[in-house]
Design a protein that fits this description.
Elements lengths: L9 H19 L5 H10 L4 H5 L1 H4 L7 H17 L4 H10 L15 H7 L16 H24 L3 H16 L16 E13 L2 E13 L4 E8 L12 E5 L1 E6 L8 E11 L4 E9 L9 E5 L10 E6 L6 E8 L3 H4 L10 E2 L5 E6 L8 E8 L3
Parallel strand pairs: 1-9
Antiparallel strand pairs: 1-2, 2-7, 3-6, 4-7, 5-6, 8-13, 9-12, 10-11, 10-13
Length: about 375
């Protein structure tokens, strides 16, 4: 058989089709959470679940029986967290009943009803919100195919199951409300928002962070929230055309004057409307760094608001192929000098640099006044 340019091997295509069929089956079940059917597929090899979900559960055969379902569920949740747009991300959240549901509710039984719940999300599927679920079904088709492709690729290449097991357990604990996670009290000057989801994508050039794209899904903590302040610790000439922060979706940039010349630049991302307490909003921004000769040693998220939900923070890094780090690791709530220390071999904080890409989802919630991020050690010149 000859494979033409742009096609893929038949067995790989079949694998992706099987994963997509399994995911579609899980999403359409009205009679239970996905984890229930993953467990059934593992515990009862002759069940309908086992037949349909074989492509998802078979790669976990080497794991202990009691953690296999957590591993698969954690992989799915992790990949949902890395969905490329707010529409796809929220559609996948609804399809697989990943909390939280809009409006502080729980996800409904049928896929159609869950898509109707997404109408409560302001700005994600249009402004004003749609009156039908057509945009959700369109996003679902694209999101499902993309998710299936990513999962099939990872399952074929081999998965580091340890962090996925933790993610799966954390997601289940949120669903079953066995843990009532609460962020610590924020400071008086904290921004009045709580972040449900934050995806940071850093694109490196040489050894510096050339582009940093941040997607945020927030909840207003008081009435009157109309924007979000972000910092860019690089120079600026006060020419708006050269401001290193760009609004990409559902916001616009308003520069704020600095009290001292050495202070970092404060850019306000002004929302399209003023929020009421408890109202959700999604927006995307980008920070650019023109100092391309600088060497950065970490990508940091400073929690200057009311916190980030468990599993809600994902940081992913695309390294310059000619400048790959010697080691990468994630850190949480550490002093600056602590985060520069490489963990010992075998430590779960270490992250593999696979083809120049690194990603980590923080399973625990992120507290105000703390720092979370990915650090790296560069190879000696």
């Amino acid at each position: 058989m000859t494979i033409g340019m742009g096609s893929e091997p038949a067995d790989e295509a079949a694998s992706r089709a099987e994963v997509e069929a399994a995911l579609r089956w899980l999403a359409k079940r009205p009679d239970g959470e996905p984890l229930r059917f993953l467990r059934e597929a593992i515990d009862d090899p002759v069940s309908d679940s086992a037949v349909v979900l074989r492509s998802l559960v078979a790669p976990t055969a080497s794991l202990a029986r009691e953690i296999r379902a957590f591993a698969v569920w954690g992989l799915i949740v992790d990949e949902i967290g890395a969905a490329g747009s707010s529409r796809r991300h929220n559609t996948l959240m609804a399809a697989f009943r990943v909390p939280p549901a809009p409006g502080g509710t729980v996800w409904k039984a049928t896929l159609g009803d869950r898509f109707r719940q997404l109408m409560l999300l302001p700005g994600v599927f249009g402004d004003p919100p749609p009156t039908t679920t057509t945009p959700m079904h369109q996003a679902w088709r694209d999101a499902l195919k993309s998710l299936a492709g990513r999962l099939a690729d990872k399952l074929a290449a081999g998965v580091d199951w340890r962090p996925r097991i933790d993610i799966g357990r954390a997601a289940v604990e949120v669903v079953e409300e066995r843990v009532a996670w609460r962020a610590r009290a924020a400071s008086r000057g904290a921004q009045q928002v709580f972040v449900e989801r934050m995806l940071v994508t850093a694109v490196m050039y040489r050894r510096t962070i050339w582009r940093r794209i941040t997607e945020r899904d927030i909840i207003a903590c008081e009435d009157g929230v109309d924007g979000f302040d972000t910092h860019a610790a690089i120079g600026w000439t006060h020419d708006m055309a050269e401001l290193p922060v760009t609004a990409l979706w559902a916001c616009r940039v308003v520069a704020s004057p600095r009290a001292h010349p050495d202070d970092p630049i404060l850019a306000r991302l002004s929302f399209r409307r003023t929020l009421r307490k408890g109202e959700r909003y999604s927006f995307v921004s980008e920070a650019l760094d023109g100092q391309l000769e600088e060497e950065r040693r970490w990508i940091n998220v400073d929690i200057d608001h009311h916190g980030i939900a468990p599993g809600g923070l994902t940081i992913q890094v695309s390294f310059d192929a000619k400048h790959l780090p010697e080691a990468c690791w994630w850190y949480a709530e550490q002093l600056e000098y602590e985060r520069t220390r490489k963990p010992p071999e075998g430590d779960p904080h270490l992250l593999p640099v696979e083809d120049g890409f690194v990603r980590h989802t923080f399973v625990e919630g992120c507290h105000p006044r703390e720092d979370y991020g990915i650090a790296f050690r560069w190879k000696s010149s």
